[in-house]
């Protein structure tokens, strides 16, 4: 029986291993983590992450061929294939601070694998890492190998949160990179055989190690670039009276461009896009390619600009001050159908409003008060460390209250900001909300989900990203 162990029971490791266990009943899959509370949650009825369809998959396999454990060393030593899916934060200090990946957790996982292994193993990079990490890991493993053979593979994960299970069931492609030696090719085949249980062969792409590592950074950079492109257009639409949705639709009809990932928004978030682009930028700089580095840096700059622009629209529309005003924040997660808040644009928007002394009342159907308070008080990049190494619980901010209902959040508010596109925000009773708000009542839609005409009819002053401006906003400066 083939045994698989995955180090890191996070957003990637947990769902990916659950699906492997489901599709390969004869393979035993163990998911291990240094965080005991996280493992306990995986073994309970309340999984540590919210992901549609995940509960069902876990329930079908847990205790049969899927196990969650904090006995990291035991499961690693027994495994034939070890996936590594640990945190890779952006460095905050020292060489490459603010850009380079901090590989502390990866290195410690690699050293542990070398320490406890008694048989040959295939070690699979699953977390996104900078190009050439595999080579570094290979060095750690072979210098500590005691005669054991380790084959390194890069098998980047392309799932998106909120659709992870669907993405894993029917991936556009599975990418496996390995050494071009006979042993390397044998290892590639072993991993390909796992995916071949449910993925058609023509969707399993095998490459060399460096291509696989770089493809992941490139794919995320291209996707983020599309969003920054459409967001840059949204600013121009507001200035000219064009409607960004109409422009996206027209542009996306070109089959060479395609319709996906062209929704203008308050900005992209999530654990990957910014981090992977920063990594790409750093690699370019290290390789003497400043022009290429600057090209990609611009994608992040436009994203930051979009968030700042949104805050400025709010403040300038509300007579240039939000001091002491109650602003309802609807949605805090970085996208709908997830409770994940990593790099969510809501953090920067809320911080911007708090900087102008607003009183925030926040509602998100999947994000806890503790998480929101933590996010608003944490330093940049601190989120990407194992939970037990993150700063301890912050003292909660007086200007921020977290409520469990959109109506409570908006009661007596001066303005509403929609920051996540949760479906429930489309069908709220906006008349009731309007009746209970201060006047003039504002809606700032950062996701273009409300019916603008209907809301204006009710009496709201509405700002939607990239849409023709409300008369009210026309003479107000939007850029700092
Ligand atoms: C992304 C990649 O899609 C995935 O392939 C990779 O494995 C990990 O990173 P994820 O971050 O989970 O996945 O979500 P994604 O759907 O890509 O959205 C990222 C951000 O972009 C979200 O904040 C989302 O709201 C925003 N977005 C997306 C837009 O603003 N407009 C769009 O048109 C699409
Ligand atoms: P991702 O989104 O890439 O899955 P997460 O932060 O959700 O990232 O998950 C990474 C997990 O890896 C965390 O649960 C963390 O506790 C775990 N982890 C980090 N270092 C180690 C290690 N050396 N051994 C075991 N687990 C680790």
Number of continuous helical runs? 17
Q: Bound compounds, please?
A: uridine-5'-diphosphate-xylopyranose, adenosine-5'-diphosphate
CATH level-two architecture of the largest domain: 3-Layer(aba) Sandwich
Specify the oligomeric state: single chain
Tell me the domain tally: 2
Classify the secondary structure makeup into a structural class. alpha/beta
Domain UDP-glucose/GDP-mannose dehydrogenase C-terminal: 328-452
Keywords: NAD, Oxidoreductase
Protein name: UDP-glucose 6-dehydrogenase
Family: Belongs to the UDP-glucose/GDP-mannose dehydrogenase family.
Q: What can be said about this structure in brief?
A:
The protein is an alpha/beta fold. The protein contains 17 helices and 14 strands.
Structural account:
It is built from 17 helices and 14 strands. It has 480 residues and is an alpha/beta fold. It has two domains: 3-199, Rossmann fold; 242-473, NAD(P)-binding Rossmann-like Domain (Rossmann fold). The strands form two sheets. The chain has an eight-stranded mixed sheet with strand order 3-2-1-4-5-6-7-8, sandwiched between helices. The longest helix has 32 residues, at 209-240. It is globular, with a radius of gyration of 24 Å. The structure holds uridine-5'-diphosphate-xylopyranose and adenosine-5'-diphosphate. Adenosine-5'-diphosphate binds next to helix 5. It comes from Gossypium trilobum. NAD(+) binds at residues 8-13, 33, 38, 86-90, 127-128, 161, 272-275, 342. Keywords: NAD, Oxidoreductase. This is UDP-glucose 6-dehydrogenase.
């Amino acid at each position: 029986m083939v045994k698989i162990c995955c180090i890191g029971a996070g957003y990637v490791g947990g769902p990916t291993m659950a699906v492997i266990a489901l599709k390969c009943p004869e393979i035993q899959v163990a998911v291990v983590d240094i965080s005991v509370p996280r493992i306990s949650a995986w073994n309970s009825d309340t999984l540590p992450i919210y992901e549609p369809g995940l509960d069902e998959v876990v329930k079908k396999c847990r205790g049969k061929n899927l196990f969650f454990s904090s006995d990291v060393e035991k499961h690693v030593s027994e495994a034939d294939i070890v996936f590594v899916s640990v945190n890779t934060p952006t460095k905050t200090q020292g060489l490459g601070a603010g850009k380079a990946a901090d590989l502390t957790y990866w290195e410690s996982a690699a050293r542990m694998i070398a320490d406890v292994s008694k048989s040959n193993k295939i070690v699979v990079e699953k977390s996104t890492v900078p190009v050439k990490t595999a080579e570094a890991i290979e060095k750690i493993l072979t210098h500590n190998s005691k005669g054991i053979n380790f084959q390194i593979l890069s098998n980047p994960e392309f799932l998106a949160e909120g659709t992870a299970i669907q993405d894993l069931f029917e991936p556009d492609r599975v990418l496996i990179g390995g050494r071009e030696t006979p042993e390397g090719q044998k290892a590639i085949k072993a991993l390909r055989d796992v995916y071949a249980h449910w993925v058609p062969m023509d969707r399993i792409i095998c490459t060399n190690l460096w291509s696989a590592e770089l493809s992941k950074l490139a794919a995320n950079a291209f996707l983020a670039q599309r969003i920054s492109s459409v967001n840059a257009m949204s600013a121009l639409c507001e200035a000219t009276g064009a409607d960004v949705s109409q422009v996206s639709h027209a542009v996306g009809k070109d089959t060479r461009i395609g319709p996906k990932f062209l929704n203008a928004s308050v900005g992209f978030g999530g654990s990957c896009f910014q981090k992977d682009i920063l990594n790409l930028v750093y690699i370019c700089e290290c390789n003497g390619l400043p022009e290429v580095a600057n090209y990609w840096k611009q994608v992040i700059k436009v994203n930051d600009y979009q968030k700042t622009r949104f805050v400025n629209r709010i403040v300038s529309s509300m007579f240039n001050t939000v001091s002491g005003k109650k602003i309802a924040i609807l949605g805090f997660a970085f996208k709908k159908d997830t409770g994940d808040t990593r790099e969510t644009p809501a953090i920067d928007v809320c911080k911007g409003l708090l900087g102008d002394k607003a009183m925030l009342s926040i509602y998100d159907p999947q994000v806890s008060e503790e998480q929101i308070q933590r996010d608003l008080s944490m330093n940049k990049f601190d989120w990407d460390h194992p939970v037990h190494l993150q700063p301890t619980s912050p003292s909660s901010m007086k200007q921020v209250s977290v409520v469990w209902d959109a109506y409570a959040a908006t009661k007596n508010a001066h303005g509403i900001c929609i920051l996540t596109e949760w479906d429930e925000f489309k069908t709220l009773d906006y008349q009731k909300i309007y009746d209970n708000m201060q006047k003039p009542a504002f809606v700032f839609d950062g996701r273009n989900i409300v019916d603008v005409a209907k809301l204006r009819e009710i009496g709201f002053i509405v700002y939607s990203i990239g849409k023709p401006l409300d008369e009210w906003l026309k003479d107000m400066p939007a850029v700092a």
